[in-house]
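= Protein in question =
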Amino acid sequence: MSSRSIAADLAAYARTRLLRLRILALGVGVGVCGAAASALRFETLPASIALAMALVWQFRLWDDLEDTAYDRALHPERILVATKVPGAFRWALALSVFLFAAALAITRGPLAAAVYVALAAAAAALYRFCAARPSARLLRSHLVLAKYPVFVWLAAAHPSALRAAMIGIGLYLALCLFEVADDPALRASPKAWGLAIAEGIALLGVLAYGATR
């Protein structure tokens, strides 16, 4: 397999999975949340969006790599299912984790880098021990989304602990609701809808609390 084929597959993946409007909007949204959680507020917005977008793209690739077996049955047209060089994507992910940790250590300090490394380790453990099988999809999807409050904290240049926690929890609950509504398998699950109702009530509580601060 030539390097040209590897580059073509990487470019096709970026075009079809990373540069989609939904993913771009998610990255911008996380960046806005990060800036809102910062003591410096929106003065840090451009940097927060750039950092959040990098995190969203990186973990999108990781999610897709771990979902390859699931996608093989439902989405055989996806690049990671059809590619003959899956190792190239895993090397790209590993390199991005190393470079991102180093960049955080330089720009945000050792604490931010340590939090990011801990998040990556937790994600690796989750993917290792929580298989992407249909029976575990509800639990796994909610655990995977737990990374977003950490994204908010990392995207905040000088995070206010309470503000970052409230914004991060609110974002997590909103994304859980979206996941249930968007995933056909979860939409068909009464258990998922019961959990979504509880999450909706919790989200309203977070918004009400935030309005009083």
